[in-house]
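Write out this protein's structure.
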Amino acid sequence: MHVNESHEPATAEDALAQLMMTVGRRFRARLDGDTVDPSQAALLYTLKCRGALRLGDIADAMRLDASTVSRHVQQLADRGFVERGPDPEDGRASIITLTEDGRAGLKSSFEQRRAILAEALADWDDVDRELLRIHLSRLAAALGDHA
């Protein structure tokens, strides 16, 4: 990353990389009242968006190793945030489903992190906030977030 002496990013790419590191740290940090471990929230979000999935499909969707996903699924199942059920197409496999407790925990986690963003944007006017929304949506699409 290219940063000049004033610590201002030299390019849009540098600014985005700096933002991602800062936001990533803030969002991965455990917050008071968290019921969902931040490292597991992405798995719950994947199930929320895609519905019930096999473990291997979750790993593929998240681009993670199946053993990592399996460990997280077990921890989330132990807490009642996901359930394992039989796969109707393959008796050897199981389907992972998000429970209502999992939905509630994910919602709470998102609300806490959204509050951090709302505070950071509190002094931005409506025009700047809308431009940010438009540009971030465009960037997410370009990065394949909607694929």
